Structure formats: structure tokens, C-alpha cells
Amino acid sequence: MEIKLLGTGTSQGVPVIGCQCKVCQSQNPKDNRLRTSALLKWNEFTFVIDTGPDFRQQMLREKVEKLDGIFYTHEHADHTAGLDDIRPLYFRRKSPIPVYAQERVIEDLEKRFQYIFTKVNRYPGAPEVSPFTPKAYRSYFIGGKEITPFIVMHGTLPIYAYKVDRMAYITDAKTIPQKSIDLIKEVDLLIINALHHKEHKMHLNLKESLEMIEIIKPRKAVLTHISHHMGLYEEINKQLPDNVFLGYDGMRLQV
To answer: How many domains does one find in the chain?
Structure first.
């Protein structure tokens, strides 16, 4: 399976509008971060985790021509606002695109993108989706891959992370229940959020993320959902443990 990090930034992206800090002014493309999302490919299948505001730009950059489904972590705009931009992929597919999310998230999407979900008086240019509400900790098989949604806590909000065979993808977590830790112990690849260095109510900071990696003990870990306050890529990446890497947009990983 190939995993491509489509975006590794926070809800504001990096550079942040109007910011003059050294990260936002950096000429290193690895310091430019679109909103967090990932592309998964195996066999003939192509899936994305989340469709943030930069979804169109990310699809064009990666030359994506087909989409077999979307796994949503939660309903916040930086993870869902690009849903309308599935239109050309839907037109090419000629059938509804599966959307996997918690029931609460589907209900939120139905309110915000009513014209996509409605069955009545549909606008002919609107895309169609097929919503599914997989249960946490229950495994599903898609294209021969075992996919298991599991719970992490985004502050007090329970959101989905995903285990796909020997890879686990976590974003926007502040705490991780023991049941979820047990599920993903010693995976080959852990992708996990690390906001910056200071304490935050909703997100793991770098210290907390590294502590969680020590507990989970993946063969390799990659950090995502990174703020401009983290620091320059070239400086921070050198400070990490040998099996931990600062993610960047376009990073390609194999499991």
C-alpha cells in the first residue's frame, strides 16, 4: 500500500495568512503545509482520508483520476470543506462515491452539503455520495485490505482514526484511549499529529506525541497536522528519534 501525505498543516495551513515568522517566510517547500489529508492506494483502489479546503489543489498536484471512497475523521471544516470538489471524480466514476464516517459526522455533512445528499429535486451538477457509518473497532474489508476505525479524543470530541492493515493514521488527537492503543500496538507505520511545542487543549504537542509513539512502538512514525509554531522542517527533523520523521506535503510512504 502506498500512502501519500496530501497535506500536513493545521486548520490555517502554513504559511498562515499575514504571518511574517521564519517558517511562513521559508523558501523550503517542506515548510509549506496544506490542510491535513492523506491518499491511500493499493491494487486498483484509491481512497482519501478527509477532504479539507485544499482538496482540489491536492488532487491536481497528485494527478488523481479516480476515487473509490472517503474516510472522514471528523466534521471540522479543515477536514471536510472540500467535499464539493469530488465532482469531476464523481462524473468520471459515474456512480456515487462512498463516504465513511461516524453518524454524527454524516449528519453534519448532510446539513452543510444538503444539495449533495438530497434525493429530491437534485441539482444536475451536484456529485452523489453513498454514506456509510462504520462502527469503531469493527474491521471491514475493502479491496482485500482490513480497515478498522478507532476512537481518539480531540479534546472532548470522540473522532475516528483509521488502521489499514499495518498502518495507523491519527490526526487531531489530544488523548488516545487504551483500547485504541492496544489495537495499533507495534504497527509498521504510525502517522500521528504533533501540533507544536506548547500545551494545547485539543491536540498533542510534540512532547506528548513522542511519548505516545514510545507507548505504541511503531516500526516507523511520521508526524502530521503541524503548526508554523513547530519550527523549520530542517531544524526539527534533525532533533527527532531515529524512527520518527517530520511529515511534509507530498511525502510518499509504503507499507
So the answer is: 1
